[in-house]
Amino acid sequence: MTMPIDEAAVIFLIGGLGAGKTELALNLAIRRARRLGPGRSYLLDLDIVNPFFRVRHLRDALTREGVKLIAPDAQVTANDMPAIPGQAFGVLQSSDTAAVCDVGGGELGLRVLGRLAQQAAARKARTYFVINPYRPGFTNLETMRRSFDILTELSALQVTHIVANPHLINETTPDLFAAGLEKVRNFASGMNLPIAFSVAAPALLRLLPHKAAQPSDEAPTNLVEYDGQPLLVLDRYWETPWIIGKEQEVATCPNG
């Protein structure tokens, strides 16, 4: 089984606050580093809205995983200014790089993102809209559509796929996951957009009926098939900071 994440060189992640973009960005960047080799996978931290959710706090740990992190400098980080690091433009302009762009969920972060729209188009970037149907603003089709329209207009990016991330952290049950996934499927169908994949934590996966995807020499195997669609097994790095970044003693971010 193949997924768009293994085909596109550049991926942007947008969505509402708490959709799970940061967690997904970490997993995708690490997956790509393991597939392409150290130093060839970039993670662009463009979240200027939520300082405690930022992947830049895990810089050293990501480097050990073979991921190159691009983030605002220390002064910008401290002041929380809406600025895109200059290196981000170079990474997106280079045809030899693979990049995952983690974008803030608020209006401020998305307006800044518009400056990268031209580079995204030139690289034929995939833009994933991540939806957790258990977050405010995404609990039914009407609010999903309203939030989708607002966020996509602000970002100036053309959404290519939907990613389903239905969860309530440790309270997620198989029935809750299935019901949330069905909501996202209905929304995606109404928008005429494909669902790239859904995501679930390993603990939940053990409770879900699934089958292993066909192993590939070119991609890691943290991929299964659930209900006829790809499902990415998502390591919750923010929930368990001892897995990655423990030495920084960073704040946990189960909803990021």
Walkthrough of the structure:
It is a single chain. The protein is an alpha/beta fold. The chain has a single domain (4-248), classed as Rossmann fold. Helix content is 34%, strand content 19%. The protein is built from nine helices and ten strands. Strand 5, helix 7 and strand 6 form a beta-alpha-beta unit. The radius of gyration is 17 Å and the shape is globular.
Strand content: 15-25%
- CATH hierarchy, class: Alpha Beta
Instruction: Give the low-confidence spans.
Output: 240-256
What class do helices, strands and sheet pairing give? alpha/beta
Q: What is the count of helical runs?
A: 9
CATH architecture: 3-Layer(aba) Sandwich
Name the overall outline: globular
CATH homologous superfamily identity: P-loop containing nucleotide triphosphate hydrolases
- The main sheet orders its strands as 3-2-4-1-5-6-7-10-9-8
Write down how many β-strands occur, each being a DSSP E stretch of 2 or more residues: 10
N to C succession of SSEs = EHEHEHHEHHEHEHEHEEE
Whole-number count of domains: 1
Assign the CATH topology.
Rossmann fold
Largest sheet: 10 strands, mixed
Quote the distance from N terminus to C terminus.
27 Å
Radius of gyration: 17 Å
Mean pLDDT figure: 81
What is the helix content?
A: 25-40%
